[in-house]
Specification:
The protein has 243 residues and is α/β, with parallel strands linked by helices. It is built from 9 helices and 5 strands. Strand 3, helix 5 and strand 4 form a beta-alpha-beta unit.
C-alpha cells in the first residue's frame, strides 16, 4: 500500500508537469513582470490551502518578496469547524484584506482545492477589482463537478487569470482500500507545493533573463545563513506583515 501511494503520487506529479507547463510559463511571466517593477507576490489559501500560502514564504530557496495573507479564522490550527464556517462566509474576504496594501499590477496566488467556497472566490474578485492578476491553484476535477457556494455562482478557476491544476481527484483522497468505504491519503498539498516550487524556479529564470538578480532566502541553519537573510529582512520587513 505504501508503494501504491508513492507510485500514484509520481504519476500525478508527472501529469501536473505536462498539464500545467504552458500555464506555469504564463504565471511566471505575470509574476516576473510584477516583481521586476518592485511589487510583492501575494499568496492566500483557506483550510489546507493555507499551507500553500506559506509554502514559498521565508523559506530557503524562496523569493523574499512573497507576502502571505493569513487569517487565523481560516486556518485549521485555530479551529477546524470554525475555519469551515468562515471559508464559506460571503463577505469575509473583505475583512481579511482590511488594512492590507494591495497594488494594481501585483500578482496574488490563491490556493483552494475545491475552488467553490465564498472566501477564495471573493478574494479573487477583490484582487481583480484592485488591479491584481490572479493565479489559482485548484483541482479542476473537483471544482468542475461541484456547485459554487458563492452567491455569484462562480468558482475560483472561472475568475483566475491563470489556472494551475493540482490534478487531485474529486475529494482529494486518492487511494481506495478493500473493506473501507472512504478513500484515504490526499494529494493536493503535495502537488500544489510542487506547482509553487516549479513556479518559483521559472520566475527566477525569467528575472535573471531580464538582468535582475532575484532576492532569495537561504537556510538559516547553514553557516552564513542568518547574515544573508538579515539583509532581506531589512529590505522587506516593513512591507510584509508576516515577516
Amino acid at each position: 500500500m505504501i508503494n501504491r501511494y508513492f507510485t500514484h503520487l509520481q504519476e500525478l506529479l508527472a501529469l501536473c508537469e505536462t498539464r500545467n507547463r504552458e500555464a506555469l510559463l504564463q504565471a511566471a511571466s505575470l509574476a516576473s513582470d510584477s516583481l521586476a517593477k518592485g511589487h510583492l507576490l501575494h499568496t492566500f489559501g483557506t483550510g489546507h490551502g493555507a499551507l500553500l500560502a506559506i509554502e514559498p514564504f521565508h523559506r530557503a530557496g524562496g523569493l523574499a518578496q512573497v507576502d502571505p495573507i493569513m487569517d487565523d479564522n481560516l486556518t485549521l490550527h485555530h479551529n477546524a469547524r470554525s475555519a469551515t464556517f468562515f471559508e464559506r462566509l460571503s463577505g469575509y474576504a473583505e475583512a481579511v484584506l482590511a488594512g492590507r496594501e494591495l497594488h494594481a499590477g501585483e500578482v496574488i496566488i490563491i490556493a483552494s482545492n475545491s475552488g467553490r467556497n465564498a472566501v477564495p472566490v471573493e478574494m479573487a474578485m477583490l484582487a481583480q477589482e484592485r488591479g491584481l492578476k490572479v493565479i489559482a491553484i485548484t483541482s479542476l476535477a473537483h471544482s468542475q463537478s461541484q456547485a459554487s457556494r458563492h452567491p455569484s455562482g462562480k468558482k475560483l478557476y472561472e475568475l483566475a487569470d491563470v489556472v494551475l491544476d493540482n490534478c487531485a481527484p474529486l475529494g482529494d483522497a486518492s487511494i481506495h482500500i478493500d473493506g473501507l468505504n472512504e478513500a484515504v491519503s490526499g494529494v493536493s498539498t503535495i502537488t500544489g507545493a510542487a506547482l509553487i516550487q516549479a513556479l518559483t524556479c521559472q520566475i527566477c529564470e525569467q528575472l535573471l533573463a531580464r538582468g535582475i538578480t532575484p532576492p532569495v532566502w537561504i537556510s538559516s541553519n547553514m553557516d552564513g545563513g542568518d547574515a544573508h537573510n538579515e539583509k532581506l529582512q531589512e529590505r522587506y520587513a516593513s512591507r510584509i506583515r508576516s515577516m
